[in-house]
Design brief:
Elements lengths: L1 H17 L15 E2 L13 E7 L8 E7 L2 E7 L10 E2 H4 L1 H5 L9 E3 L8 E3 L2 H19 L4 E5 L5 H11 L7 H18 L14 E5 L9 H12 L3 E5 L12 E3 L6 H14 L5 H7 E2 L1 H7 L5 H8 L3 H14 L3 E3 L11 H14 L50 H10 L7 E5 L3 H4 L3 H9 L3 E6 L11 E4 L10 E5 L8 E6 L13 H11 L11 H10 L5 H6 L4 E4 L12 E2 L3 H5 L19 E6 L13 H6 L5 E4 H7 L6 E6 L9 E6 L6 E5 L27 E2 L6 E2 L4 E6 L2
Parallel strand pairs: 8-14, 9-10, 9-13, 10-11, 12-20, 14-15, 15-16, 21-25, 22-24
Antiparallel strand pairs: 1-5, 2-3, 3-4, 6-7, 6-16, 17-18, 18-19, 21-28, 23-24, 23-28, 26-27
The structure holds ligand MGD (2 copies), iron/sulfur cluster and molybdenum atom.
Length: 738
């Protein structure tokens, strides 16, 4: 079946993609939030030992670190000078890792909730008691209802091992990673369907003549080596085109900023492509060689004249033409950025398909400046779990006959619906490992309802966050600075530099504090108590790492001696497109009755008196995970709501006014924030940083600061092809307080 092929391709490409992270040896200009040089105060790090092998996880880009350690205490983090990825640069959050490590609010001991879910009363218990409870409760649920009565909500490195245990050994299909269903899964599936590759962010911006960003607020979205490539491209003279309803950091650097009407990007992409086709300004030879279904595609997008898109997107037709001409004049060396957080409106697969088709139409694949497939290090057996790469294929997925192009795992909404309704089967056990479902998922009430009907909720975390309030047993995981749980590997990003690859296993920089334990130990102990002791693949995190490295002929000790990173010769990835087919028309999609050519699906407009609520990143935080970090919350204590200056004047709002947000369903924000009046946002929208408005009082530095955007996302949109959540279909008005 076509979809099987697609999923196999995904697994194949996902493992390649995991090993293909951009790098640049050349230091670039500092961007907002990026610290170029270590900020060493003279003399303050005397008598410290430099410990190598750190891999950051303040976000998921995983820059390579060294730690300055004295008497077993970490004093400072720096980029690993051996890194050919981030080099000595870390972003503000990466530097802030030290403050996370010693945050007094962190989880220290296993805890049992003797109060209610959502209103916990914690009792400190021993590991033995905690593990006995987890093992017996989860086993009882599996015995009574079967393996699929367990749901797993993982995210991040430390969640991979437990996720694999529950998915492969216990055998539940109900696994939903935030990175897939609320982030980039739509992109990966749309690109695999169109170009047969999962793109990651492997777009060669450093060598591009034009960089084209749809959303992607680079500079606020901070991933160090990715920013290096982007800034290097700009330094070398690339033209920058930014589609964003807001004057983002990227828009401020743009040659062409398009303050597009939210939700209409696909219309504009279709008009650009139609113009290129009609005027034969596309890569004709490339399309002839690699394209499939081009005629149907060309005929299908014919209705998308510049004028029609101009009206839909509220952008001058001349500007759309200008962008199309700029792309045509510089093809194939154009970086059409595939985006990362793409779960916007519930029609996002189509926008990502359109971006992939535009990339193909311009021949911008495996060429300088285009979408490339870097060739990563060989021999590594997966990145964490010795036995598998990615999610299982053979599981029984009764809920699967919808969203046929869903990323690996099960769409979150299907799991929530099943748990609440008990159909098609009961879901009574919940494992939450590194996912703050309360802030990460839209429809908080639904998440809470799901959690409340569980027989047992296990949560492993490093902090007491909003989701940990719903745990029955709360386990203190080691942070990324105290454990071995991931191998970061990558290859050349700036292809004009030397071709090299690297392998950087995460090694603990300090011993775990208090009673914290790592994911392998915790999972194994639960596995034994559930009756799977004989299926345990490795006894320790170090053994897990050793098994993965074995295939590449490496050991942790050898890499430690090499400075924490193994570097080897690589290959230039240009001109390697033998795998390539550009499915302008997708028979696979047609077979399942989804639009077979990229199609614009309009979104609902804001009701009178309301503005669309948009959100994004601050360079100083990662979602909610860094919000309690004493250094970072000090620098960015609140998420002001951006309001257009004309609108503010009409509403009588001034800069700094305190407001509450109320959405279209009458849901009010629990907390307040301040107004930021600016011409840098469209009149139909407001904007705020995601991750604020923590309600857990145990987060003493951040509780109640700012507004939680997720609490206002009560209208849920689902992307039909993938089942992923659309998060930008909610509307708010601002109510002045005081
Ligand atoms: N500092 C920091 N950096 C991070 C993270 C973090 O938490 N903190 N998280 C990382 C992760 S996991 C991800 S996925 C990425 C996310 O970062 P991106 O992938 O860049 O996220 P986007 O949603 O594309 O970008 C948000 C921008 O989209 C604009 N926008 C909103 N609606 C529309 C629309 O309809 N059309 C267009 N064209 N633009 C629109 C917003 O105004 C905003 O400027 O960031 C990564 N980098
Ligand atoms: N409204 C709204 N929703 C969004 C987004 C948005 O911009 N707006 N962004 C979406 C995107 S792009 C993404 S990627 C997701 C992110 O979604 P999440 O990954 O859920 O976001 P985080 O805030 O990082 O929360 C992760 C949890 O993991 C914990 N944690 C951190 N390190 C460790 C560790 O080592 N071990 C364990 N066990 N736990 C750890 C944190 O304390 C926190 O409780 O959110 C998505 N949802
Ligand atoms: S971009 Fe910043 S937070 Fe993310 S891994 Fe790198 S240093 Fe850490
Ligand atoms: Mo994300």
């Amino acid at each position: 079946m076509a979809m099987n092929l697609t999923r196999r391709n995904f697994l194949k490409t996902a493992s390649i993609a995991a090993a293909s992270v951009p790098l640049s040896r050349v230091a670039a200009k500092a961007e907002s939030g990026v610290v170029k040089k270590p900020l060493a105060a003279p003399g303050s790090f005397k008598n410290t030992k430099t410990v190598v092998g750190g891999v950051c996880e303040m976000c998921f880009w995983r820059c390579q670190l060294v730690g300055k350690v004295r008497d077993g205490r970490l004093l400072k983090l720096e980029g690993n000078p051996k890194s050919i990825d981030n080099g000595v640069s870390l972003c503000a959050r990466g530097n802030g890792g030290v403050a996370m490590l010693y945050d007094p609010d962190r989880l220290k001991y296993p805890l049992k909730n003797v109060g209610k879910r959502g209103e916990p009363k914690w009792e400190r218990i021993s590991w033995t008691e905690a593990l006995d409870i987890c093992g017996s409760k989860l086993k009882a649920i599996v015995d009574q209802h079967g393996a699929k009565s367990i749901a797993v909500f993982p995210h991040g490195s430390s969640a991979k091992y437990p996720m694999d245990f529950f998915e492969r050994t216990v055998g539940t299909p109900n696994v939903s990673e935030a990175s897939f269903f609320q982030c980039r899964g739509v992109r990966d599936m749309a690109y695999i369907t169109t170009l047969e590759i999962a793109p990651d962010e492997n777009v060669d911006m450093a060598n591009a003549k034009v960089i084209f960003l749809t959303g992607s607020h680079l500079g606020e979205n901070v991933h160090v080596s990715h920013l290096k490539g982007y800034l290097k491209g700009l330094e070398r003279g690339a033209k920058l085109v930014v589609l964003d309803p807001r004057f983002s950091a990227a828009a401020s650097k743009a040659d062409i900023w398009v303050p597009i009407k939210p939700g209409t990007d696909t219309a504009m992409l279709l008009a650009i492509m139609n113009y290129l086709v009609e005027n034969k300004k596309y890569a004709v030879d490339f399309v002839e060689e690699y394209g499939e279904g081009f005629e149907q595609f060309a005929a299908g997008i014919k209705e998308w004249t510049l004028e029609r898109a101009a009206a839909e997107c509220e952008v001058p037709a001349a500007q759309i033409k200008q962008i199309a001409d700029l792309l045509a004049a510089n093809m194939p060396n154009v970086a059409i950025h595939p985006g990362r957080h793409v779960t916007w409106y519930g029609n996002d697969f189509q926008r990502e398909r359109a971006l992939a088709c535009l990339t193909g139409l311009l021949g911008a694949i495996d060429v300088k400046g285009g979408l490339v497939k870097p060739i990563g290090p060989k021999g590594l057996k997966g990145t964490n779990w010795p036995q598998s790469e990615g999610h299982g294929e053979g599981n029984l997925r009764e809920m699967e006959d919808v969203h046929h192009f869903h990323p690996p795992g099960t769409p979150t909404e299907l799991i929530r619906d099943a748990a609440i309704s008990g159909q098609p089967y009961p879901i009574k056990g919940c494992v939450i490992w590194g996912q703050n479902m309360i802030q990460t998922l839209p429809g908080q009430e639904k998440t809470i309802k799901m959690l409340e009907q569980m027989d047992f909720v296990l949560c492993a975390d490093v902090m007491p966050t909003d989701v940990t309030m719903y745990a029955d047993i709360l386990l203190p995981d080691c942070s990324y600075l105290e454990k071995y749980d991931y191998i970061k590997s990558g290859t050349q990003w700036d292809l004009s530099a030397e071709h090299q690859q690297y392998i950087a296993p995460r090694m603990a920089l300090v011993e775990p504090g208090f009673e914290r334990k790592d994911c392998v130990w915790i999972t194994n102990e639960i596995a034994k108590r559930m009756g799977y002791g004989d299926k345990i693949p490795v006894a320790s995190q170090e053994e897990m790492m050793a098994k993965v490295l074995e295939g590449a002929g490496l050991t942790l000790d050898k890499i430690r001696e090499e400075g924490g990173i193994h570097i080897q010769p690589g290959e230039a990835p240009y001109g390697k497109n033998d795998y390539l087919i550009v499915h302008f028309f997708s028979e696979d999609l047609g077979e399942y009755e989804y639009p077979a050519i990229p199609t614009y699906i309009p979104v609902e407009p804001p009701p009178a008196g309301y503005m669309r609520m948009l959100y994004g990143r601050t360079p100083l935080h990662t979602f909610n995970r860094s919000i309690n970090n004493p250094w970072l919350i000090h620098e960015a204590p609140i998420n002001p709501v951006w309001v257009n200056d004309k609108v503010a004047a009409r509403l009588g709002l001034k800069n700094g006014d305190t407001v509450r947000l109320v959405n279209q369903d009458g849901v009010e924000s629990r907390t307040t924030t301040v107004v930021k009046v600016t011409p840098g946002i469209r009149e139909d929208s407001v904007y705020l940083y995601h991750g604020y408005g923590t309600r857990n009082k145990e987060m003493t530095f951040s509780v109640d600061k700012g507004v939680d955007d997720s609490s206002l996302i009560t209208k849920i949109a689902i992307d039909p092809e993938t089942g992923a959540h659309g998060l930008r279909n909610n509307f708010v008005k601002l109510v002045k307080v005081g």
